[in-house]
Amino acid sequence: MKALHTFLKTPIDISSDKIAIKSYPGFHIGTDGIRLFVKRMYDYIISKGANVYIGWEVIDIDTDRQREFYILHLKNSKNDCSYIRSNHLILSTGLEGVVFIEKIANKFNIPLINRVADIGIRLESHASVFKKFMDEYYDFKIYFLSSNGLKLRTFCVNHQGFVLTENHKQLGISAVNGHSYFNKKTSMTNFAILAEIALKKISDPVTYVRTTAKKLNIQGHPILQQLYDFLDVKPPLSFQTLTPTNRKVRQGNIGKLLPVELYTAFKEFITELINAFPSLKQYGGFIYAPELKYFQYKIPINEFCCNQQTGIYFIGNASGYTANIVGASIMGLIATDNILKKEGYI
Q: How far is residue 245's CA from residue 120's CA, in Å, rounded to a whole number?
């Protein structure tokens, strides 16, 4: 397992002065590594007496008449029904559960707080293009401010990885994401380029992102476009022929389907990336769309991640305040610690 560095041992010459580059310490264990981690975590909590319901979906939440207990209504693939009763409840539904969280919020009259939202594209090119960064930074962050005032950044770098399709069924959106294995490698590297949709520009960024994302689907699939076509430039005579890692897409003109301000910002950013990484022009690559991050509303919670109106704890994506594993884990520890204190265990 390779530790990643906060800074470069030797300076990297970046020919563009319009982009800022940052990173942070971390470990890359890959999709295969995280599966093993989750399996070991599962075995551990089972050994401590926890009950885990696999294959059951929570379809609704109620309270008893005295509001002393929460009642979770469950259903499995065979349409068998069951329920769980509990005096404490932590909701951690991930992005897949965004619509469910909104349903529960409306049911319990919890106000949803508007927030900035991110929508983007995913760029994929030959792994050698970004190799000088990958030797030191794994999940590097590149920041850019477009001429029309949009803030853009790279996100979720996957060196020698894969682009995959993820279906947000409840929203009716098919999007893309990226991942990489610790042992299994490809010749391609991919990362997202996200644009921040701020409240100053759009009154309801979450709805804007969802509406835009739906337009970036063809026959229920995400869209793929050659990098040169997306930029509307002719490829160099010596450009390389590459193969995309995701075939569960449809080819289309992403630039024409994006709002003008978004397309302009993405095009400017990629142009600066080519200035910073000249071999990107030689190799070219692919643009996938849409990429979704932070497209849920915020739930009002206190410092213990608890909604005081209902007593329900919301953590991770369900809360609307974070969209990463580390942040969700920390929120889970905070919520659990608060429950244990209430029950007198600590």
A: 18
Give dist(CA 161, CA 190) in Å, integer: 7
Q: What are phi and psi of 22, to 5 degrees?
A: -140, 165
Residue 187 CA, chain-centre distance (Å), reads: 23
Do residues 173 and 214 lie in contact, with contact meaning Cβ atoms separated by under 8 Å? yes
CA distances in angstroms from 198 to 28, 149, 288, 324, listed in the order given: 31, 10, 23, 20
Q: Are residues 163 and 228 in the same domain?
A: yes
Q: Look at residue 4 in the predicted model and tell me its pLDDT.
A: 36
| Same domain membership, residue 187 and residue 130 | yes
Structure tokens at 102: 């909104």
pLDDT tens, 148-182? 999 999 999 999 999 999 999 888 999 999 999 99
Q: Are residues 133 and 23 in the same domain?
A: yes
Tokens of 23: 């990173």
Contacts of 257 (CB under 8 A, 6+ apart): 215, 216, 223, 289
Shared-domain flag, residues 165 and 81? no
281 is in which domain, residue-wise?
2-29+115-293
Q: How many alpha carbons fall within 13 Å on the CB side of residue 222?
A: 25
pTM given for the model: 0.91
Whether residues 183 and 205 share a domain: the answer is yes
199-258 pLDDT tens trace: 888 999 999 999 999 999 999 999 999 999 999 999 887 777 899 999 999 999 999 999
Same domain, 129 and 237: yes
Domain count, the chain: 2
